[in-house]
## 1
Amino acid sequence: EKSRLSDVLNSKHEETEAYLSEIETIGQAYDDMQTQNQKLLQQISERDDYNMKLVFEGVHSRQMGDNLLMKKRSLERAIQQTKTSDDFFETKVARIEDQLKAYLDQIQRLTEDRVQKIATFENTQKRQLDVRKSSQQLIDTLEEAQAKADRGRLDLAELQIELEKERFERKRVEADLETVRRKAEQLKSHADGSSEAEKLKQELGEYKEILKCIVCHDRRKEVVITKCFHLFCNPCVKGITESRHRKCPVCAASFGPNDVKPVYI
């Protein structure tokens, strides 16, 4: 269709060139005739009709040339559209071919997966049979173990009864031992009265050391820091509050003068 239209277009183009050349020759003749108007006034009246015909034919040929140009442009547009449509269809075909390749690859992968799944299914069936056999064996062993457990429960109940008897005997012996121990402690307290007084003096010294300030180890604890509740003597806390770094010596908690409260120990 494209070649046929191009042939028609060429033929039309040749016709338009012929018409244009004829029109040019006619125009040239017309110009020559105008130069010879004065000489050919008598002939002009006779050939006036012929000239009118030629003019009409020239206008008609021009109209035909314009129509042919319009047809040529429309044909060029149609050819361009066919080219664009051809390019579009070629790209579409390429896309379809790519999609077809992808689908073929996917089908191949699916077949491979199917073969693998069939193999795994057969393996699972074999394993299931093995599991059933092993479960049957486990059920048999479980029944035997339950029978052994029932026998063990009976033995355990008998052992618990014997254990309760032994516990009762042990409690009675412990009660007797406690009474004997109390009597021994009473006798020992009468003998060790002097050592008990020394222990009390030692504990009193330890309590006095606890009441001393942790910083100076000399004065008694007089104030408390309410942020951390640690106790110190008043001069040590005053020295800390007058310095820039107001922190507890024990836990390093920051405090202010309002956080220091007196205590009476």
Note: The mean pLDDT is 81.
## 2
Amino acid sequence: ISETTTPGSRFPLTEAHDPDLGKNSLQSYELSGDEHFSLAIQAGPGGDQRPELVLAKALDREEAAFHELVLRASDGGDPARTGTARIRVTVLDANDNAPVFSQAEYTVRVPEDVPVGSTLVTVSAADPDEGFNGHVRYSFHKISDRESELFYLDSETGEITLKDDLDFEEISSHELQVQVRDGGGLSDTSKVMITVTDVNDNVPELTVSSAVSEISEDAPSGTVVALVHVHDRDSGTSGEVRCSLDGGAPFRLEKSFEDYYRVPELMLERALDREKQSSFELVLTAVDGGDPARSGTVHVHVNVMDLNDNAPVFNKKLYEARVAENLPSGSLVLQVRATDADAGSNGQVSYS
């Protein structure tokens, strides 16, 4: 009998036979064993009694898949004689139960460097129906194009695995709608929240937004040489950057804003002397706070422009020469020489 059978439905039963006659023949039936069923007796055209099984209460296969009944027939003799028959009612399944997820929402946190192919979470649903009605399959109900490239859902097991690399800096969380459907078409939905946690997978980036290629050797201390923008796509301590200046040059590094070294300034720290060093190769290094830390560098080349801050100097303080009194006019008497440490026209000397 199907579990959807309407109460009051009747099912004919096999009649009992008693070869005695009259009072000693079959007189009555009695049913025992289960509240779901009752007994009805129909009178045949010859006065015979025909038993019928009546469904008194709705069936539920998930509650009881079988019902065991006993039908007893009695005659009217003294002493009375009885015969019994066992009735086994099998309840046929109907798709009267929808599958139900074990959780209304599944949450999981995974690092962005989790390997492709890893199982992130497994959803599960139960359906108390049997056979085809109780067989469930899983599918994504609502999912974006990007997320369909990232995640794979096994329709049989409910495992959600990773198909492509995650990127916290691109998307830090994913909300998926998962549906389960049984063989009869009944369904349930659940939400899956996947939170991507940051790992230190980005190198600090330094960009020279403005810089001078030349600086005069008489430039005052505090002159800005370059502005450098520092950016790290990571978050938290992995995105906190410290900057340093390498090279032992007469420059210092200052931060322009309270936000730690977002825009470092290269500034002249002490007086320059082109005659001692005519150019500088400055190396700025940015190190983040990740573990392990990552670093990035940028180079700034600065030439020192000459200033006429050096006088020409003779190679001797006193030049002496001895000449004969009959030396012809135009003869070389001696040669003086002077040098100037400055460059270009500042270092060209003339004599008088």
Note: Helices lie at 145-150.
